[in-house]
Specification:
The protein has 107 residues and is mostly beta strands. It has one domain (13-103): Pnp Oxidase, Chain A. The protein has no helices and six strands. The protein has a six-stranded antiparallel barrel with strand order 1-2-3-6-5-4. The N and C termini lie far apart (42 Å).
Length: 107
């Protein structure tokens, strides 16, 4: 079964493809950092492609370049904290535990 076709999800998925950065939280062992791209998302989860296979069942923080802006001027970042549910090759599914929007820092 393809990870993107699983019917385990409860919310509608939206095919939003945008850049992200992630931090896998490894407890006392520190953290792993990387980048990727969203494949789709819903109110409860995110499917994304990353630069490597991620461990299942770990806490993860995602910083997603949101494709819309605030009042047409300020770029937005969606910050998500969740847990990886499953990973196949470089695709990972994350259950969202918390999320919040931040304005993007200007270059």
């Amino acid at each position: 079964m393809d990870i993107g076709e699983s019917e385990r999800r409860s919310g509608n998925r939206f095919p939003i493809e945008t850049a992200l950065e992630y931090k896998v939280i490894l407890g006392e062992n520190g953290a792993e950092f990387g980048s990727g791209q969203t494949i789709n998302l819903s109110s409860g989860g995110i499917l994304f492609r990353s630069d490597r296979t991620l461990p299942q069942g770990v806490m993860i923080e995602l910083k997603i370049d949101w494709p819309a802006s605030l009042s047409g001027t300020a770029g937005l970042i969606l910050r998500v904290v969740g847990r990886t549910l499953r990973s196949e090759a470089t695709n990972s599914a994350v259950r969202i535990l918390r999320h919040e929007f931040h304005t993007r820092k200007r270059p």
